[in-house]
Amino acid sequence: MKVAKFGGSSVASGEKFKQVAKIVTSDPERRIVVVSAPGKRFSEDTKMTDLLIALAAKVQLGEDYMNEFGQIVDRYREIVTELEMSTDILSDIMANLQSIIDIHKHDSFRLLDCIKASGEDNNAKLMAAYFNHLGHEAYYVNPKEAGIFVTDEPGHARVLPHSYQEIEKLKERTGILVVPGFFGYSENGNMVTFSRGGSDITGSILAAGVKAALYENFTDVDSIYSVDPRIVKNPKEVKEVTYREMRELSYGGFSVFHDEALEPVYKLGIPVCVKNTNNPSAPGTFIVPKRKYSDTPVVGIAGDTGFCNIHVSKYLLNRELGFGRRLLQILEDEGISYEHTPSGIDNISVIMREHQLTPEKEERVFSRIQTELEVDELFIERDLALIMVVGEGMNSSVGIAAKATEALARADVNLEMINQGSSEVSMMFGVKSEVVPKAVEALYNAYFNNVYSISYTNS
Amino acid sequence: MKVAKFGGSSVASGEKFKQVAKIVTSDPERRIVVVSAPGKRFSEDTKMTDLLIALAAKVQLGEDYMNEFGQIVDRYREIVTELEMSTDILSDIMANLQSIIDIHKHDSFRLLDCIKASGEDNNAKLMAAYFNHLGHEAYYVNPKEAGIFVTDEPGHARVLPHSYQEIEKLKERTGILVVPGFFGYSENGNMVTFSRGGSDITGSILAAGVKAALYENFTDVDSIYSVDPRIVKNPKEVKEVTYREMRELSYGGFSVFHDEALEPVYKLGIPVCVKNTNNPSAPGTFIVPKRKYSDTPVVGIAGDTGFCNIHVSKYLLNRELGFGRRLLQILEDEGISYEHTPSGIDNISVIMREHQLTPEKEERVFSRIQTELEVDELFIERDLALIMVVGEGMNSSVGIAAKATEALARADVNLEMINQGSSEVSMMFGVKSEVVPKAVEALYNAYFNNVYSISYTNS
């Protein structure tokens, strides 16, 4: 049994629905289909999810929302018309939307969450109806019916462990089961969404629940690339990547696959294949528990911006038991999570995602560090980026660091930070945001094109 | 006014006392002299401090201690005889030792501390008497009289801030003032020692108190070397080093100067000169607030062993607010201080000095990490060393990291960890202990002999 998830661009139009149906019905093992809400059909197009957010905003403001409501229904209508299906289903969709508005209009947080989830939900109904229209046995399966139970944290739901036994029962059902992505149900019956991009999570949970042979993740690229194609033209395709490598690449800014989504399949060792809906015969990228590292020790290079660094120093700091712990406690009290804490003897840097540090939080954090820790020096460095060189094969390989630092020096990239050694899967470099493209390109050329090589000369 | 401190080997014999007197009297600015206890005269010799520890041990056990007592007095007697001084002073020394024993024999902790401190104390009395014997105006000044007040933590005393006003009054006195190093007095009148090597601390406190023009630290080497001479033969002498660089080098294993000792003079910007008692005309090494970095961006390479690394990993660890803080709390609860915490996305390494981790503490720490943090993976890596490349001039210098990693790769040194970026003064590499000599040598050759150089070839 395979679980196939189709992303927003794969279900953006009637034409795409036809392609999905062709893919699903071409392999009888493809029994569970997870769909996103309709995505963009062209680069200036608006995603269904954004139309829904606009609708929720109008409802919250108590303003007339018929225009936004109409746009949403029109978007589904176009798909139905393109597929030459009966428009009866549109009344169901309209009734569903209206009932969400009526129930939640006084709870703007819940309203937004349920309206967003309806994008996937109604699209799954449409997809199931299209399979039926083509004469296939297929069913829309609501996440509650499927057994996807989650914590009641709208926008951050986490699957509850007992879901998996429930989901396993889907194996007994016949036909194609179409499940909307992006949300589950809390114990007290609320629709609750995962974080954005969470349809990947739904697919992964279902694949784990039914112990699928393969979790196929259909998107709009032939494969995952070893580097961002906007930085390096025609980069090398990644044929195989391990879960751990994928997680590091996602963290480093690879957006093709939602990183939290790997957890359920990772635990069971279920392989994932990222494929192109528009070119399903291309082999795609396999995400697997283990791969052969010999030919490609490094699998990819990622770079992500939006970090900052709070730097503190204090003479004889390293003699103070509890200094680091108290520093982290101050951040925790403000709900700020940090990424890394490289340290010297008398100084610590705390690297974090910059957006977390609102001006108010920054002021409170700085004032507490100053008064409670009595530091000699305290400053913030903004506009930092982290660049990750990822590959399980580089573990304890002499010279890997030399290759990277040499390539970066050659490209005249100044290193704010090097972090290597804790993770066996990656090496991390902190640089100023503006040098990310040249740094990433230099590293790509070093590892994938062998452009620079060290030669040793005695002088 | 200069403060001149003479280390153990500089006051180990009558011959050395003569040398010290010659140095002190050759410059009328040398007004405050700090002495250690007599050190080794030859490599198999026993230091006075170790004789005193042996005496304290016998007293504590309630055993006959006349043999140990006799050895100590004999050691002073040899000096007195060599200097052709009256032996009257030996009675004072014997009475002093006996009174410490009588007062503290039932408090073994305090006994050890006071007996150890007597090594410096009696040697200072001897030195002052020798100056008088030569016809110079000189006075033994007890630390209480000098105004060195400290916290009541035997073996770890810290100077109390009001000491400095007291010490400043020494400027009004005439003659040469000889002060014993290594200890001060608590508010309730106890002799309390600094950590071992603490005579450097006494000198620094006195230099800060009298706002000396220079703090001279006389030892048995011509200068501080850029690398351990046991690893690299005839290494480059360091002419100038900043306080911050010196602290990093001390941390990295340079033992020539007690690192805590720099704090008092650092705060006032008083320069320190490390000189050789046996070759006082050599310029020595100046420790200064700032230096010119242009010709020597890297000032020294140090390597220290005895570290270990506790490694934890957990899937999606970086989403858990407070994980790092709770990990550090567990260590703090056991009184374990850590050095560095390099981290990946889903893992953290905590690097600490290995001796802290007794088998019992290790067991408790591991069990708490496992149960409270529910980690996926937990292990300890032993026999680690930290190698530091130190130099203020390497701050934001492109290619410094490349030079180091290239040299290490060339020497076939596998890097367990790289830590660069928090400190502007150093770059740190974690390696297995057994490769320290070859790693240090490779780095020395790269920075000081330019043995390896990077050349770039397109292939």
UniProtKB/TrEMBL annotation, chains A, B:
Pathway(s) annotated for this protein in UniProt: Amino-acid biosynthesis; L-methionine biosynthesis via de novo pathway; L-homoserine from L-aspartate: step 1/3; Amino-acid biosynthesis; L-threonine biosynthesis; L-threonine from L-aspartate: step 1/5; Amino-acid biosynthesis; L-lysine biosynthesis via DAP pathway; (S)-tetrahydrodipicolinate from L-aspartate: step 1/4
Keywords attached to this entry: Amino-acid biosynthesis, ATP-binding, Diaminopimelate biosynthesis, Kinase, Lysine biosynthesis, Nucleotide-binding, Transferase
ACT domain ranges (all copies): 389-459
Substrates-to-products reaction catalysed: L-aspartate + ATP = 4-phospho-L-aspartate + ADP
Annotated Pfam families: AA_kinase, ACT_9
GO molecular function, one term: aspartate kinase activity
Stored InterPro entries: AceGlu_kinase-like_sf, ACT-like_dom_sf, ACT_Aspartokinase, ACT_dom, AKIII_YclM_N, Asp/Glu/Uridylate_kinase, Asp_kin_monofn, Asp_kinase
CDD domains, per database record: AAK_AKiii-YclM-BS, ACT_AKiii-YclM-BS_1, ACT_AKiii-YclM-BS_2
Function, in words: Catalyzes the phosphorylation of the beta-carboxyl group of aspartic acid with ATP to yield 4-phospho-L-aspartate, which is involved in the branched biosynthetic pathway leading to the biosynthesis of amino acids threonine, isoleucine and methionine.
Family affiliation: Belongs to the aspartokinase family.
Name assigned to this protein: Aspartokinase
UniProt source species: Priestia iocasae
Species classification: Bacteria, Bacillati, Bacillota, Bacilli, Bacillales
